[in-house]
Each structure stands twice: as structure tokens, then as C-alpha cells.
């Protein structure tokens, strides 16, 4: 079921094509407008309560930059801390390697079981590598336990938001999904199910409970990984994460290498920034922190897969690397006028919205048409930077990536503008050359004396079609001065 639900994002239509189709979906636009405005209003209220909010943003950005500058050292420290605490660390260069590691670990635990399955905490990293599809190909069912992820999975859909994957669905649609799909994969929805949120949540709770109690293996991501202690942190609002992290015998956590923070003290900053920016709450209802193994309490086998999957390539770009500061709060999605109208599916990735428009082309490269189009999926209004809790200059990165797309399209050849600027630099750097050029311009002006403008200029077609380029003067200032004053200017 999971493979059918997610499919592949790469190869989808370019953003303009997908966005044009999404704009025609009135119900989706209505759902998105209501949801994003509700979340952004909640965020504005709780952020307004914090007098030093800007100082917190600066601190969060500084901590992330410190980690990114010395990432190799912090990763070694994290591995040592995790190993000392009893966890086993695996390194994955790409999605294929990560999927192979996780599938192998799960196979070893569920071989011969009637129910070949795992329960999952909501995780962007596992969606990024399409882990559910890899497990399904190996005959292992991966059950999403986050309410919104469950809705997406049961609806054979794709997530459209970082925080609220089913933001494009309304309550009536969710009721229909639960009624028709729950019984196919487990406990069916109760008779007389209504669209009341409390009733829908209870139906999901009952459906998932048997899976929580039965599963031997759970899979999670992590919001933060503390290098100092080897502590992994997951924040959530429903309690399903706590169930996954504590009940099964084996826990496998797939963690992007950029999720490292130096010390437990640094969590003070992020545990204020993240809930306010994401859910509009002062603190997350559930903050789970675990450090390796504790005999007799929680999972007795813990594996941590540290995932690269393009992150070191992003790190190599001095400007682009700030995208790795992202703490997946989704604040930029909720204020983006483009996202609000087209939704997340148009971005062709589990990372939609403004952050997806800069993160996807860096993680995946710009080889596909959709990744080439994503840097243009913005009006550059700057609202995303204003709300980003770690001050990622998303508009600046979008322009940076647009330039990269253009450069790659030219195949390394210099643009007409580059050639013109180099020619101008050569001309202006020598007084004699500049004077001769002026004399040439005088000659051109006399030849074109009868024309007021030059019209279309070769090489500057589009520019000169929309503007009047005046003909060169028949006499330069130097010539006039020499004639009137009798000396060289």
C-alpha cells in the first residue's frame, strides 16, 4: 500500500505545469487558505509574547552555522556518544544505502513473523529516501502513526505540507477515507463515523493501537541529535511518537547529518523556536529524548542511521549551505502566497514550499525539469525569511539557484552579459582605448544621424525591443572640449 501511496516525486511535471493544475482545485485552495491562516495567526500570537524573539533567531542560526562549519568533528563526537550509550551507528551515503541498511535490520527482526511490519514516527528523512516503498518491496508493511500521515497513507495520497501532511484534506474527506480504507488494513472505522475532529481522532487511535502493541520494530527520525551526549530528540503533538519510541523491542532512527547540535544546553534555544514556529504552541505536548539503551526500559536494541543523501554537496556551497539550518518547522509554507494557492504537491517533493524550492535542487541537483523549475516557484516577497526561526535567507538562495540553473543551461559558456562586461572592463581600463572607442562612437553617430533611436540591437533583442536605445552622439565631450578650449580633456 505504501508504494502505491507515495510513488516517486522525481519525474513529476515542472512546477508551472503542476501549479496551473492545482489552481483549478477550488476545494484544495479553500482548505489551504483556512489552514495556513489559522496556523500563521497562532504563530504570530505566541511569538509576540517573546520579547527576545529576534535574539533567539540569531542564536539558533549561530548554533546551526557552528555545527555546519565543524560538521565533521561533531559527527565523530555524536557517533562516539551514541556508541558509548549502547546504540549502533550506521552511515548512509545516499537513499539506496540507507534503505538497504534499514530493510536488512527489519528483515532480521520480523523474519518468519505472521505480521511483517513496522510502526513509524512521522519522519521527513524517511519520506525523502522513500523508505516505505523500499520496505514494501521487501514485503514489509510500514504503518504511519501520525494522524495526518495516516490520512495520507490510507488515502493513497502524497503529503503536501511539512508539518501537516494532510493539510489539503477537509474533515468530510477524511471521514470518507477512514470509512472506506481502515478496514482493508486493520481495525475498521466504527459504524456511524462522523466528521467531528474528536470522533475522527478516536477512530485513528483505535485503529493504531493494535499495531502499536503488536509491532516489534519502530522507525523514527529525529528533530535534533546532541553530539555531547548521543541524545536523540523527537517533538510531536499527539503521543504516537512516544508510543513508537518506547513500546517496540527495536528502534531504528534515520537522522540527517545536519540535525546535530553541540550540547543539551543548545536545546533551550530550539525548543523555544520550533513549537512557536511550527504549531503556534509555547511548547510541544510531547518531547521525547532518549540516549542509547536503558536495560529493562524502552527498546533494547537501538540503531541510528546517519544520512547524507546530498547534504555534503549542499555543505560545499558557502551560500547554499544555510538551507541546512532548517529545523522543518514549516513557518515559511504558512506565509507563502504561492504555496497557499497551489499546495505542496506542485513542488514534487516531500519538502514543499519556499524551503523545498531551495532544498530540493541542492539535495537532488538540477538534472530534472522539476528541480530546474523550483527556484522560480516564488514571488521573492521575503515573507519566508521574516518568519524563519533560524534566519535562512530563502529569497537570496532562490536567486542564487536561478543563476545556477541558467549557468548549467549554457553548459559553461559565458553569457552575452558576461562578454559585454569583460569587454567594457578591458575598454575602461586604458585611457587610449577609451578615447579611440569614443571616436568610433562619433563616427557611428554621424552615419546614423537621421535616426533618433537604434531599434533592435543584435544580442540584446528582448532588451532593445522594450526600450529605446538612442543613437550615439555625433560629438563626444572630449571632442567638444578640445574644440572649444583648445586642449585635451
UniProtKB/TrEMBL annotation:
<keyword id="KW-0249">Electron transport</keyword>
<dbReference type="InterPro" id="IPR004452">
    <property type="entry name" value="LutB/LldF"/>
</dbReference>
<dbReference type="InterPro" id="IPR017900">
    <property type="entry name" value="4Fe4S_Fe_S_CS"/>
</dbReference>
<feature type="region of interest" description="Disordered">
    <location>
        <begin position="460"/>
        <end position="489"/>
    </location>
</feature>
<feature type="domain" description="Lactate utilization protein B C-terminal">
    <location>
        <begin position="404"/>
        <end position="485"/>
    </location>
</feature>
<keyword id="KW-0411">Iron-sulfur</keyword>
<dbReference type="InterPro" id="IPR017896">
    <property type="entry name" value="4Fe4S_Fe-S-bd"/>
</dbReference>
<dbReference type="InterPro" id="IPR024185">
    <property type="entry name" value="FTHF_cligase-like_sf"/>
</dbReference>
<keyword id="KW-0677">Repeat</keyword>
<keyword id="KW-0408">Iron</keyword>
<feature type="domain" description="4Fe-4S ferredoxin-type">
    <location>
        <begin position="323"/>
        <end position="392"/>
    </location>
</feature>
<dbReference type="InterPro" id="IPR003741">
    <property type="entry name" value="LUD_dom"/>
</dbReference>
<dbReference type="InterPro" id="IPR024569">
    <property type="entry name" value="LutB_C"/>
</dbReference>
<dbReference type="InterPro" id="IPR009051">
    <property type="entry name" value="Helical_ferredxn"/>
</dbReference>
<dbReference type="Pfam" id="PF02589">
    <property type="entry name" value="LUD_dom"/>
</dbReference>
<dbReference type="InterPro" id="IPR037171">
    <property type="entry name" value="NagB/RpiA_transferase-like"/>
</dbReference>
<keyword id="KW-0004">4Fe-4S</keyword>
<dbReference type="Pfam" id="PF13183">
    <property type="entry name" value="Fer4_8"/>
</dbReference>
<feature type="domain" description="LUD">
    <location>
        <begin position="77"/>
        <end position="307"/>
    </location>
</feature>
<keyword id="KW-0479">Metal-binding</keyword>
<protein>
    <submittedName>
        <fullName>LutB/LldF family L-lactate oxidation iron-sulfur protein</fullName>
    </submittedName>
</protein>
<dbReference type="Pfam" id="PF11870">
    <property type="entry name" value="LutB_C"/>
</dbReference>
<keyword id="KW-0813">Transport</keyword>
Amino acid at each position: 500500500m505504501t508504494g502505491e501511496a507515495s510513488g516517486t516525486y522525481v519525474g513529476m511535471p515542472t512546477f508551472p505545469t503542476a501549479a496551473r493544475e492545482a489552481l483549478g482545485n477550488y476545494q484544495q485552495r479553500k482548505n489551504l487558505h483556512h489552514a495556513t491562516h489559522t496556523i500563521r495567526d497562532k504563530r504570530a500570537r505566541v511569538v509576540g509574547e517573546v520579547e527576545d524573539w529576534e535574539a533567539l533567531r540569531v542564536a539558533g542560526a549561530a548554533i546551526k552555522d557552528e555545527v555546519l562549519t565543524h560538521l565533521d568533528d561533531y559527527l565523530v563526537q555524536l557517533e562516539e556518544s551514541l556508541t558509548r550509550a549502547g546504540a549502533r551507528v550506521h552511515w548512509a551515503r545516499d537513499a539506496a544505502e540507507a534503505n538497504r541498511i534499514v530493510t536488512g535490520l527489519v528483515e532480521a527482526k520480523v523474519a518468519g513473523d505472521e505480521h511483517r511490519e513496522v510502526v513509524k514516527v512521522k519522519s521527513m528523512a524517511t519520506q525523502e529516501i522513500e523508505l516505505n516503498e523500499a520496505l514494501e518491496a521487501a514485503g514489509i508493511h510500514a504503518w504511519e502513526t501520525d494522524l495526518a500521515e495516516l490520512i495520507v497513507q490510507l488515502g493513497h495520497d502524497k503529503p503536501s505540507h511539512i508539518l501537516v501532511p494532510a493539510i489539503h484534506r477537509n474533515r468530510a474527506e477524511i471521514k470518507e477515507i477512514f470509512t472506506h480504507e481502515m478496514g482493508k488494513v486493520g481495525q475498521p472505522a466504527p459504524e456511524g463515523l462522523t466528521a467531528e475532529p474528536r470522533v475522527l481522532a478516536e477512530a485513528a487511535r483505535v485503529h493504531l493501537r493494535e499495531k502499536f502493541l503488536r509491532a516489534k520494530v519502530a522507525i523514527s527520525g529525529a528533530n535534533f541529535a546532541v553530539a555531547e551526549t548521543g541524545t536523540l530528540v523527537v517533538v510531536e503533538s499527539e503521543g504516537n511518537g512516544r508510543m513508537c519510541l518506547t513500546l517496540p523491542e527495536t528502534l531504528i532512527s534515520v537522522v540527517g547529518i545536519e540535525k546535530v547540535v553541540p550540547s543539551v544546553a543548545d536545546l533551550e534555544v530550539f525548543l523555544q523556536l520550533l513549537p512557536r514556529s511550527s504549531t503556534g504552541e509555547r511548547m510541544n505536548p510531547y518531547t521525547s529524548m532518549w540516549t542509547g539503551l536503558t536495560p529493562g526500559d524502552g527498546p533494547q536494541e537501538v540503531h541510528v542511521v546517519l544520512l547524507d543523501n546530498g547534504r555534503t554537496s549542499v555543505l560545499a556551497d558557502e551560500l547554499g549551505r544555510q538551507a541546512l539550518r532548517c529545523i522543518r518547522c514549516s513557518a515559511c509554507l504558512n506565509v507563502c502566497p504561492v504555496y497557499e494557492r497551489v499546495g505542496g504537491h506542485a513542488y514534487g517533493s516531500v519538502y514543499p514550499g519556499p524551503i523545498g524550492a531551495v532544498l530540493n535542487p541542492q539535495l537532488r541537483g538540477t538534472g530534472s525539469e522539476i528541480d530546474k523549475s523550483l527556484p522560480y516557484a516564488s514571488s521573492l516577497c521575503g515573507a519566508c525569511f521574516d518568519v524563519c526561526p533560524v534566519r535562512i535567507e530563502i529569497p537570496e538562495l532562490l536567486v542564487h539557484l536561478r543563476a545556477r540553473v541558467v549557468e548549467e543551461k549554457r553548459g559553461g559558456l559565458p553569457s552575452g552579459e558576461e562578454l559585454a562586461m569583460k569587454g567594457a572592463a578591458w575598454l575602461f581600463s586604458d585611457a587610449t582605448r577609451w578615447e579611440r572607442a569614443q571616436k568610433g562612437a562619433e563616427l557611428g553617430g554621424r552615419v546614423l544621424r537621421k535616426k533618433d533611436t537604434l531599434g533592435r540591437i543584435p544580442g540584446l533583442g528582448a532588451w532593445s525591443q522594450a526600450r529605446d536605445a538612442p543613437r550615439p552622439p555625433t560629438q563626444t565631450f572630449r571632442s567638444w572640449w578640445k574644440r572649444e578650449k583648445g586642449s585635451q580633456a
